[in-house]
């Protein structure tokens, strides 16, 4: 299950406690029957987020060596050396001590050295581009940022979704991201960190879930009026459930043809996409697409490198583009 | 100009009836539009009130003569700080509105997303460029020439020009409340979102031109103060005898020179994209927004230290003064300040660890970022060591200082956390980040500026600020800050993104409510500052600072009368030690009569500042609204004024005869001798008229 492969992890001793926490979170999720809101890397659902959480606390505790003396010392100094306290020692011309200098410079420096080693190690270990080692090859998902939703393309299966990204648990997911509008930032906090998605460029994010569940997914980079509604649900499911889900999307989806994609390019929230394309067969808040043409993703990226201008009327998400009535 | 064009669009550009924000309330009386129009009306009514007050008290003449055309560094400093306080008021109100919206934001709230986006964009832009920068520039203006024993800055006219340009930028931001909308792209205005396709309105243009104008002004300020500090120091004032505030002002000025141009260039490139169809940052035709991110943060990170270093300087001054003790570790503090200034250019990439670069790159910049923590930590320890074995008076500035130290290390902790790319991937763009930089800038910068304002106020105006209202304000800022921003750390870890008008997770709500309560305290703090100023002016006769040294302070500026004469020093002092005034007082030579006086030459008044402010604003306004004639005319006026002034030179320079200087100085010395010196026990009482009685020399263990 552990995809990171290298290096010791600090997760061992906490495993029991985490199971308990998962149980509680799971119970809440079951009762409310929806997304586990507020489940972030603080209660991780995958090894990347777990390592990030551990690193967060490591840094916090180690930094206490330099932080606590100030928090404790300042009130004590202010009280003990107060003007009225005639018992306190007073040395108005004392302004230097070699011993103190050494401590002042070397202790923070030592702390920074330790933190830097941790930083170097974790930055490489948790590099979003780094493939997660696993028995199974990663599931490829192409993510297109549009205003104000993410479009998830499953190139191997020629399906796509808005509002929901499903994947099997314990199998790594390799996301390739771009946008067809302004810059956005993609994050599923419970699984791992965020990465920017930028027009004409691709970025990578490797994630894996170690148990089934529903997790919040967001865009964290402001991109206009619908920003607050740009959420999706990341669903980690069993292998069997995922296969069933795939065939459901293939059967119940609507075709993602040129016109449908052009309409998706207009600035709409996932709910508005559902209202426009959704059918009874699709679950609420989610829209399924099938017949996704191969090469859709690379076309989206390459369009900005054709050497020809992309006028506002052809630029998804722009004011002029949104003003058009498509398909009428 | 194309004559086939209709007349009015050629004159008014794209300005039309829909641009008039103050009318919106009559067409769409929703709460959102009431607030929108209310802000426009506040600017209009405030402007009219200001004019009315100035007319009623017949202040136009004195304001023009004593301030607007003055090149006196103290007057220019005062004008900078007045601007900063006005903009602080607007920025705080915007912050309070945003906190209220988010307290009410579970699934909705009362503001539209667009309005909220304008609020966070103007709030950030204003607080950085038109509150923080003018505040610290004002303090530097007032204090640095005094601390180095100079009569004025090296380029007094240029100083007035800098102020004029800063004012024009601020004026454009205020106009954006009344006419049209501001950008919704945040204070960093990342393209392509701020490109023409996505925001064809005037919003990003307001951002561009107000920043370019203020940016040029700040660059000139930087040049002015580097030269001033290098060239205008009194005899004996070696670099290593300069007070710490001057050191930090020097570092901040160097940073201004090198850091502002990338921002100005980035804004000009964005303007080229928007006005001339260039493709620097567009999606297609080879544009790349990553270049903008790099340029903006190549400015943006040094900017953080431009903001914080002068505050560190203020803290270094007040900790020594109010501990009644020499500043501990002067050499260490100088080295730390310089290290911070240099390192600040090596870390900009940590603002976008998430842009997809290699892990090696991220790790290198992450480590560089943590390195800055070392000198910064040393500074905090140095201030603690200054309090150690001192006799600490918990005056208002010391309340700011001690709360700053405790809160700032917590902000430093979250900064160290954010410096780790792998953790930053999780908390970047969340409210954790928002909490972090407010944690650095409120206890760091704002508390420092307010401490400096309290500390140097009597030096500038000749009477002390009311301490009771000062304490109320300080405690309200502290409580307000903690209540507003600590909850943001929590919701940030819970995944709440920044800049979101509403949210769906009910778990955020209690924290947002707590944060909203904090906003009430912040409002009280701001109001207390206003009351404090009013009460202090009313009671000024009881708190006169005749001797010029109300705090038993240590550096040169306190050896002068309060308020200061235009020439600062009757005779340029000879400096023989660090903390020269404290040394002189200890030797009983605090108020000595010089052996001789000489004529004093001072630069003359200039219209350049006013020309820059008026025509700078008009130029920006013309560019924003496509009134090309206005932009061209205004730019021409500015350029011609500059050239004419350069050719003519300063024709209004004045000479103050030695006899007059002697008479004034002797009169002051005589007056000082009539004042009863007070010990620090009675520092805050009416008996304190600015002459310090000798204190206990030393107390052994």
Number of domains of chain A: 2
Strand order of the largest sheet of chain A: 8-5-1-2-3-12-11
Q: Report the CATH architecture of the largest domain in chain B.
A: Up-down Bundle
Portion of residues in beta strands of chain B equals: under 5%
Task: Count every helix of chain A, treating DSSP H or I runs of 4 or more residues as helices.
Answer: 8
In which order are the strands of the major sheet of chain B placed? 1-2
Most extensive interface, chain pair and sizes? A-B, 105 and 107 residues
> How many strands in all of chain A?
12
Stretches with pLDDT under 50, minimum 5 residues of chain B: none
> What percent of residues of chain B adopt helix (DSSP H or I)?
55-70%
Shape verdict of chain B: globular
CATH architecture of the largest domain in chain A: Sandwich
The best one-word shape of chain A is: elongated
**Strands of chain B, count:** 2
Mean pLDDT of chain A: 89
CATH class of the largest domain in chain B: Mainly Alpha
Features:
heterodimer, A: 328 residues, alpha+beta, Immunoglobulin-like, 7-stranded mixed beta sheet, 5-stranded mixed beta sheet, 37% helix, 19% strand, disordered N terminus, B: 701 residues, mainly alpha, Cytochrome C Oxidase, Chain A, 2 domains, two-stranded antiparallel ribbon, 21 helices, 2 strands, globular
């Amino acid at each position: 299950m552990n995809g990171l492969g290298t290096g010791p992890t600090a997760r061992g001793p906490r495993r029991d406690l985490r199971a308990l926490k998962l149980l509680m979170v799971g119970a809440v999720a079951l009762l409310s029957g929806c997304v586990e809101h507020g489940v972030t890397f603080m209660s991780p659902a995958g090894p990347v987020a777990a390592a990030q959480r551990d690193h967060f606390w490591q840094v916090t505790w180690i930094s206490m060596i330099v932080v606590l003396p100030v928090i404790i010392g300042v009130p004590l100094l202010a009280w003990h050396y107060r003007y009225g306290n005639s018992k306190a020692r007073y040395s108005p011309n004392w302004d230097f001590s070699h011993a103190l200098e050494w401590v002042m410079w070397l202790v923070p420096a030592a702390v920074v050295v330790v933190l830097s080693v941790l930083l170097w190690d974790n930055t490489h270990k948790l590099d979003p581009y780094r493939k997660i080692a696993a028995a199974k090859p990663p599931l490829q998902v192409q993510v297109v940022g549009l205003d104000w939703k993410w479009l998830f393309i499953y190139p191997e299966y020629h399906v796509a979704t808005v509002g929901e990204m499903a994947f099997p648990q314990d199998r790594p997911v390799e996301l390739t991201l771009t946008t067809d509008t302004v810059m956005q930032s993609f994050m599923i906090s419970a699984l791992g960190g965020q990465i920017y998605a930028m027009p004409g460029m691709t970025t990578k994010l490797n994630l894996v879930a170690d148990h089934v569940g529903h997790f919040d997914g967001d865009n964290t980079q402001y991109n206009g009026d619908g920003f607050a509604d740009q959420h999706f649900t990341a669903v980690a499911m069993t292998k069997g459930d995922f296969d069933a889900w795939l065939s459901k999307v293939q059967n119940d989806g609507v075709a993602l043809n040129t016109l449908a994609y052009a309409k998706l390019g207009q600035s709409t929230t996932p709910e508005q996409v559902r209202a426009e394309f959704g059918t009874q067969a699709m679950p609420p808040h989610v829209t399924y697409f099938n017949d996704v043409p191969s090469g859709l993703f690379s076309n989206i990226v390459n369009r900005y490198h054709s050497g020809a201008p992309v006028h506002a009327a052809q630029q998804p998400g722009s004011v002029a583009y949104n003003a058009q009535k498509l398909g009428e | 100009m194309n004559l086939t064009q209709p007349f009015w669009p050629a004159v008014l550009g794209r300005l039309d009836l829909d641009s008039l924000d103050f009318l919106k309330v009559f067409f769409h009386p929703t709460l959102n539009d009431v607030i929108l129009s209310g802000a426009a009306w506040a600017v209009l009514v405030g402007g009219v009130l200001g004019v009315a007050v100035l007319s009623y008290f017949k202040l136009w003449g004195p304001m023009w003569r004593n301030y607007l055309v003055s090149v006196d560094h103290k007057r220019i400093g005062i004008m900078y700080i007045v601007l900063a306080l006005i903009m602080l008021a607007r920025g705080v109100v915007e912050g309070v509105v945003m906190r209220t919206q988010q307290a009410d934001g579970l699934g909705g709230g009362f503001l539209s997303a667009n309005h909220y986006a304008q609020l966070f964009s103007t709030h950030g832009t204003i607080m950085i460029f038109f509150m923080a920068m003018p505040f610290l520039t004002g303090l530097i203006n007032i204090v640095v020439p005094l601390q180095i024993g100079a009569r004025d800055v090296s380029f007094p006219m240029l100083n007035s020009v800098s102020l004029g340009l800063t004012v024009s930028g601020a004026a454009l931001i205020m106009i954006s409340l009344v006419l049209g909308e501001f950008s919704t792209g945040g204070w960093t205005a990342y393209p392509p979102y701020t490109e023409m396709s996505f925001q064809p309105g005037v919003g990003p243009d307001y951002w561009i031109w107000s920043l370019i104008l203020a940016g040029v002004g700040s660059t000139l300020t930087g040049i002015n103060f580097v030269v001033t500090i290098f060239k205008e120091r009194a005899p004996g004032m070696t670099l290593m005898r300069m007070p710490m505030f001057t050191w930090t002002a020097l570092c901040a000025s160097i940073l201004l020179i090198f850091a502002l141009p990338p921002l100005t260039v980035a804004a000009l490139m964005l303007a080229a994209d928007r006005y001339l169809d260039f493709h620097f940052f567009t999606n297609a035709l080879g544009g790349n927004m990553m270049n903008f991110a790099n340029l903006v943060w190549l400015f943006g990170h040094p900017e953080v230290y431009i903001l914080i270093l002068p505050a560190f300087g203020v803290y270094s001054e007040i900790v020594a003064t109010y501990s009644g003790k020499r500043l501990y570790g002067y050499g260490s503090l100088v080295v730390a300040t310089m290290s911070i200034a240099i390192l600040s250019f090596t870390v900009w990439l940590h603002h976008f660890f998430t842009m997809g670069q290699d892990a090696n790159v991220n790790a290198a910049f992450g480590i560089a970022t943590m390195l800055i923590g070392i000198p910064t930590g040393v500074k905090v320890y140095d201030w603690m060591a200054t309090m150690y074995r001192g006799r600490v008076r918990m005056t208002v500035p010391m309340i700011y200082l001690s709360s700053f130290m405790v809160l700032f290390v917590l902000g430093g902790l979250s900064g160290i956390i954010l410096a780790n790319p792998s953790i930053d991937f999780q908390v970047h763009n969340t409210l954790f980040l928002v909490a972090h930089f407010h944690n650095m800038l409120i206890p760091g910068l704002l508390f420092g500026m307010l401490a400096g304002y309290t500390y140097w106020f009597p030096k500038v105006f000749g009477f002390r600020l009311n301490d009771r209202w000062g304490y109320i304000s300080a405690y309200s800022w502290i409580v307000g800050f903690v209540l507003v921003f600590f909850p943001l750390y929590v919701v940030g870890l819970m995944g709440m993104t920044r800049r979101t008008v509403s949210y769906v997770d009910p778990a955020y709500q209690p924290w947002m409510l707590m944060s909203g309560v904090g906003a009430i305290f912040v409002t009280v703090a701001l109001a207390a500052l206003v009351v404090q100023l009013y009460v202090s002016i009313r009671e000024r006769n009881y708190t006169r600072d005749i001797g010029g040294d109300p705090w038993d302070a240590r550096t040169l500026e306190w050896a002068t009368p309060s308020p200061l004469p235009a020439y600062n020093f009757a005779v340029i002092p000879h400096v023989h030690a660090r903390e020269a005034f404290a040394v002189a007082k200890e030797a009983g030579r605090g108020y000595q009569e010089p052996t001789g006086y000489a004529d004093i030459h001072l630069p003359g008044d200039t219209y350049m500042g006013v020309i820059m402010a008026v025509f700078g604003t008009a130029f920006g306004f013309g560019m924003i609204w496509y009134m090309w004639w206005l932009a061209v005319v205004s730019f021409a006026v500015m350029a011609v004024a500059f050239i004419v002034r350069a050719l003519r030179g300063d024709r209004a320079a004045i000479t103050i005869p030695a006899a007059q200087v002697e008479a004034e100085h002797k009169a002051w010395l005589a007056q000082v001798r009539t004042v009863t010196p007070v010990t620090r026990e009675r520092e805050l009482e009416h008996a304190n008229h600015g002459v310090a009685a000798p204190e206990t020399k030393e107390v052994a263990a």
